[in-house]
Amino acid sequence: MQTIMNRPIVFSGAQPTGHLTLGNYLGALRQWTAMQADHDCIFCVVDLHALTVRQDPVQFRERILDLAALFLASGIDPEQSVIFVQSHVPAHAELAWLLSTFTMMGELDRMTQFKDKSRSHAHNVNAGLFTYPVLMAADILLYGTHKVPVGEDQKQHLELTRDVAVRFNGLHGTVFVVPEPLVTGGGAARIKDLQEPTKKMSKTAESDLAKVMILDEPDAIMKKFKKAVTDSLGVIRDDEEQQPGVVNLLNIWRAARGATMEEALAHFSHHQYGRLKVETGEAVVALLDPVRRRFQELRSDPKELEGILARGADQAMERAERMMQKVLTALGVPLQGSRFPIREQGRP
């Protein structure tokens, strides 16, 4: 299946569970922006997924809008891509139920993320946490997705999605595209905690000095880099085993500047840690400040943001309903004529 423009369809999304880090920007949002040139992109704020953890309703609504604004501020163009909120398209939940009848209990029980989250949320191990991968499969399969950008923690879920699609197609004919993983530059994996550079930078880190958030003010960013952990060796080289803090700063600088490691080592051949920290902070400020400013513009105009999301939901709904028509027909479920006007007009 290809789109009218004959470009592969890409689906990706993020949960509205708090502001994102520099690693999220480099490893996901900036990658998504680049994909728009040669892919048919669908980007979703997956708010239903976030409900496996208890949310404050007022704060949750704001976070959903914040994340949508961050997508746009990072360069997602609603004229090129579809951007919407998951709960605005009911077919996601509907298809998830249908796919749950094609998903085996043993498959879900093997999901390592369920085991990890069960330990960290022992007071709230709900059924949604267990069936989370089925909703993710519905998100992907609903749009005839060809490629899915996935991090290490989502590879197992994509494999399950592929297995469910193959199982359904084997019983009912070729209804779903079997999606492939889309390997990106892996920027997020290289961005480490500024205080514990052997760990990945995480928005849940206890220390504010450990993480750079996309929406941080320039002064806050500079402060964090000036206090970044390095070592006492007094040399700048690409030796992650002995100098994880230095290598982390090098990786961040070159990601922000679009440079190679060789270029970074040549630039910092003076071996001065202070200059390394300051110049890395300055590069990150130059990268993120336009995003922060655009985010503020979008959040100051709720009507513009809500209008973009409404149009995106309409676009997603049209695509989703086409797939639901195929799925329900394959399963033998009678179609309600008013729900599928395209079918009534005799169009495929």
Please compute the radius of gyration using only Cα atoms. Answer: 22 Å
Number of strands: 5
Mean pLDDT: 91
Number of helices: 15
Order of helices and strands: EHEHHEHHHHEHEHHHHHHH
Total of domains: 2
Helix content: 40-55%
Main sheet makeup? 3 strands, parallel
CATH class bucket of the largest domain: Alpha Beta
Q: Regions with pLDDT < 50 over 5+ consecutive residues?
A: 343-348
Strand order, main sheet: write it out. Answer: 1-2-3
- For CATH, the homologous superfamily of the largest domain is named as HUPs
Description:
The chain is mainly alpha-helical and 348 residues long. It has two domains: 9-187 and 302-344, Rossmann fold; 191-298, Tyrosyl-Transfer RNA Synthetase, CATH 1.10.240. Helices cover 54% and strands 6% of the residues. The protein contains 15 helices and five strands. The protein has helices at 22-35, 47-50, 57-73, 91-100, 105-109, 112-120, 127-141, 155-172, 187-190, 218-226, 244-257, 261-267, 273-299, 302-331, 341-344, and strands at residues 9-14, 40-45, 82-85, 147-149, 180-182. A three-stranded parallel β-sheet has the order 1-2-3. Helix 8 links the parallel strand 4 (147-149) and strand 5. Helix 3 (57-73) crosses helix 13, helix 7 packs across helix 8 and helix 10 (218-226) packs antiparallel against helix 13. Residues 343-348 have low confidence and may be disordered.
Features:
single chain, 348 residues, mainly alpha, Rossmann fold, Tyrosyl-Transfer RNA Synthetase, 2 domains, three-stranded parallel beta sheet, two-stranded parallel ribbon, 5 strands, globular, disordered C terminus
